[in-house]
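Whiteboard transcription, Tuesday session. T.W. wrote the structure tokens on the left side:
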């Protein structure tokens, strides 16, 4: 009767371990329609038609970048991976079910003379290997979170720089169109004078050259605008996006933060915090390597049925691995070397980060000074000169041919001020990764 119960238990365990769909061909469950995981895990989706955006602001560009950037998805998945590994590392190992037979004779009444075993054996992880392994995974998850924060800052810098360049190219194209209109008017006046006999054709050549130069610069401005828009859409991880115009103003006020405040806040910089966590991970790995030198004891408890003597017995055992060939000393040495490397990398990252914030602050300071000089000194005087010239032209004291060069000078300086303002925005974008998260 006991033998029958043993075999029934064995058969039920084997049947329970089989999957419901193991008969015949394997059965796969298709993901439901519209499931976002189906498109990510399967084949890459087909290219969709280009999306047309009538107007795009900087805030909308940042939102699109955060939504479509694959680096952020990868880092978020890594965080979930480390969190799952942390939970898994803290669990005990599963026990082993032992079902077998011993002293199975090959002749005679074999089943009535064999011995049958049924029981469990369990590995017991001594020491702190389980909490240390969980701590290592938790620290890795925290480090990946800091890398995610750094990736967000870097993405913000890339988008701000690309947006400023594209917005400048858009405004510069308008200024070049204004310059082309002035050059056409000046060329028409020169041609009219030649037709009236007031000038020889050679005297109209400077105006024609100015017109040709304006046409060339407008074509170049259009090409730079298209290239800047393409770089912006690539930064947004949407190369097929078509933006008709950018909504924004390069004259937005930007305050220069104090350098001392930026340097003092570097301790909370996500890049440095990630490097600091790498040092803590290395120290945890040293402790884990030391804990792994303690052997894992395996305890066995078995029920034995001896059919030949019709008796029942209990087997108990203890298995202890002997560190004859692998003592774990090399793993400790490797972990200590990793800690030294992590400390050196942290010091290098700290120096590079401080140098980077100082250089970015200096660049923004110089760009602001250059733009402020143009806006406060040169452009206002040109605008005043233009207003005076327009008043004289309205009063009949100044010819239109003499007014047009004044207007061209004003537009050219405004174009230079736009370029200076673009440099301010690009410098601000370079400094933004060192600013506190909003």
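and on the right, the sequence the group agreed on:
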């Amino acid at each position: 009767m006991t033998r029958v119960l043993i075999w029934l238990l064995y058969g039920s365990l084997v049947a329970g371990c089989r999957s419901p769909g193991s008969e015949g061909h394997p059965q796969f469950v298709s993901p439901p329609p519209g499931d976002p995981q189906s498109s990510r895990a399967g084949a890459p989706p087909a290219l969709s038609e280009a999306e047309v955006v009538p107007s795009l602001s900087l805030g909308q560009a940042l939102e699109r970048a955060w939504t479509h950037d694959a680096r952020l998805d990868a880092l978020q998945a890594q965080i979930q991976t480390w969190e799952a590994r942390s939970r898994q590392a803290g669990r005990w190992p599963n026990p082993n079910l032992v079902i077998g037979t011993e002293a199975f004779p090959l002749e005679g009444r074999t089943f009535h003379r064999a011995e049958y075993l049924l029981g469990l054996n369990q590995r017991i992880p001594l020491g702190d290997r389980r909490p240390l392994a969980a701590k290592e995974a938790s620290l890795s998850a925290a480090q990946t979170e800091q890398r995610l924060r750094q990736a967000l800052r870097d993405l913000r810098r890339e988008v701000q720089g690309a947006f400023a360049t594209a917005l400048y190219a858009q405004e510069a194209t308008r200024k070049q169109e204004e310059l082309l209109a002035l050059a056409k008017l000046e060329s028409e006046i020169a041609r009219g004078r030649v037709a009236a006999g007031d000038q020889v054709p050679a005297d109209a050549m400077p105006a024609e050259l100015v017109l040709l130069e304006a046409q060339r610069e407008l074509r170049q401005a259009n090409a730079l605008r298209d290239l800047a828009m393409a770089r912006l859409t690539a930064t947004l991880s949407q190369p097929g996006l078509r933006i008709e115009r950018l909504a924004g103003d390069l004259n937005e006020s930007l305050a220069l933060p104090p350098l001392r405040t930026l340097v003092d806040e570097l301790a909370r910089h996500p890049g440095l915090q990630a490097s600091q966590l790498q040092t803590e991970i290395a120290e945890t790995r040293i402790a884990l390597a030391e804990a792994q030198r303690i052997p894992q004891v395996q305890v066995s408890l078995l029920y034995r049925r001896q059919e030949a003597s019709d008796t029942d017995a209990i087997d108990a055992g203890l298995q202890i691995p002997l560190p004859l060939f692998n003592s774990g000393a090399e793993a400790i040495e490797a972990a200590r070397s990793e800690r030294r490397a992590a400390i050196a990398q942290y010091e290098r990252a700290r120096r590079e980060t401080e140098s980077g914030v100082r250089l970015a602050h200096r660049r923004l300071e110089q760009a602001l000074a250059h733009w402020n000089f143009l806006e406060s000194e040169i452009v206002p005087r040109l605008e005043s000169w233009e207003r005076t010239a327009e008043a004289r032209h309205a009063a009949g004291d100044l010819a239109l041919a003499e007014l047009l060069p004044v207007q061209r000078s004003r537009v050219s300086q405004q174009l230079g001020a736009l370029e200076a303002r673009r440099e301010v925005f690009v410098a601000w974008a370079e400094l933004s990764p060192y600013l506190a998260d909003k």
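Someone added at the bottom: The beta strands are 52-53, 96-102, 115-124, 242-243, 297-306, 311-319.
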